[in-house]
Amino acid sequence: MNAATEFDLGPLTWVKGEIDAALDRAGEALGQFREEKDATKLKFCRTHIHQVRGALAIVGLDGVTQVTEALEELLSGLEADGGKATDEMLGVVERAVSAIRQYLDDLMAGEPNQPLRLLPAYRAINEARGAARIRPSDLFFPDLSIRPPKRAEPVARISPEEFRACLKRERMRFQKGLLSWLRHPQGVLSAQSQAQMLEALAAIEITQETPAARSFWWVSQGFVDALSDPHVAAVQDTKHLCARIDLQIRRLLEGSRNVAERLLRDALYYVGLSAPESGKGLASALRSSFQLESLVPRGELMQTTAPQELALRRLREVIVATEEFWNKFCAGSAAALSGFAEQAKNCAQVTVTVGNTDLKRLGQGLAAVAAWLAEQPS
């Protein structure tokens, strides 16, 4: 893990009770609105979510704060127009509240801080709000202070005229590669087009003297290299991102060296999304430097239902009890073995209600081992 995922649980521990209470009150207010259709209850729900958002902002959980902010805006819209508060809309709010609670519980249980795990809830909220565009990178927070490796040799100084001529030449080369990609009938990025864009970015990066100035062009090369992964190249946003890189070249030509943080985050997100074996090593270097593997969850992002959340909460409690009995048995208390076996059996029963086949098998395996130990303690 890196600094982004190595979350300090201390501050969250101090406010977790307050957050849980506010989420409970938000859920209660939402339930009361379902029964009474009183818009005041939606206001109460939004107020409690606002309290949660404030607490999360204080402890530095930017991703979850982003989700609660979007949820608060959705509730504000429903409050203003009660006719929009359909069962479907209220279901989105309920699932979002559950997802936020589950995410925080997972953090307390030792899970890494990966806000992208909240993407299903975040996407549902914004679709309900009618947002025109939803960016996964809204929940992606890499450490942007990381700089490219030190050069083996210092950069050769060039005159301002030579610098401008270089930028014009390389921008044309980058645009040629991008245009070829955009015009391809199947939208396939050819090796030649990719090479043109990479060569242009590498030539620009060489002209940058300081690590800070080089950083964006280093990341941009890794992003274009990550387009070797056809699944990443097929995402329409990656074409828009290349157009934004072209715009950044133009701005550099006009004398501006400022780079929007959003642009860096977007580029690194797609690098993190790409397959580890894709590219020629540039994307791999970024994955290593920014430790992107720890920021982007692998596998399908699923959102738990309310019954599943209750079952998972119960399972966590049972696991804690099971572990306590096991530790006592290992410490020499033979009488604790029967308690361990009983709690292991409870684990197996609860995993059935979660609805995950692998988890169910794990619970059954634990119960079987416990039963075997109970029969043969030696």
Describe the model:
With 378 residues, this protein is mainly α. Helix content is 70%, strand content 0%. It is built from 15 helices and no strands. The chain has helices at 9-36, 39-59, 62-80, 87-108, 119-129, 160-183, 191-207, 211-226, 230-233, 236-253, 261-273, 282-289, 306-330, 336-354, 357-375. Helix 1 (9-36) runs antiparallel to helix 4, helix 3 (62-80) runs antiparallel to helix 4 (87-108) and helix 7 packs antiparallel against helix 8 (211-226). It is globular.
Provide a brief overview of the structure.
The chain is built from 15 helices and no strands. It has 378 residues and is an all-alpha fold. The radius of gyration is 26 Å and the shape is globular.
Query: What is the number of strand segments?
Result: 0
Class from helix and strand fractions: mainly alpha
Q: Average pLDDT across residues? A: 88
Integer-rounded radius of gyration? 26 Å
Number of helices: 15
Shape verdict: globular
**How far from one another are the termini?**
39 Å
Q: Give the percentage of residues in beta strands.
A: under 5%
Q: Write the H/E string, N to C.
A: HHHHHHHHHHHHHHH
- Helix amount: 55-70%
Poorly predicted spans: none
Q: What kind of sheet is the major sheet?
A: none
Task: Please tag this protein with its features.
378 residues; globular; mainly alpha; 15 helices
Give the SSE map:
Elements: H1 9-36, H2 39-59, H3 62-80, H4 87-108, H5 119-129, H6 160-183, H7 191-207, H8 211-226, H9 230-233, H10 236-253, H11 261-273, H12 282-289, H13 306-330, H14 336-354, H15 357-375
Helix pairs in contact: 1-2, 1-4, 2-3, 3-4, 3-5, 4-5, 6-7, 6-10, 7-8, 8-11, 8-12, 10-11, 13-14, 14-15
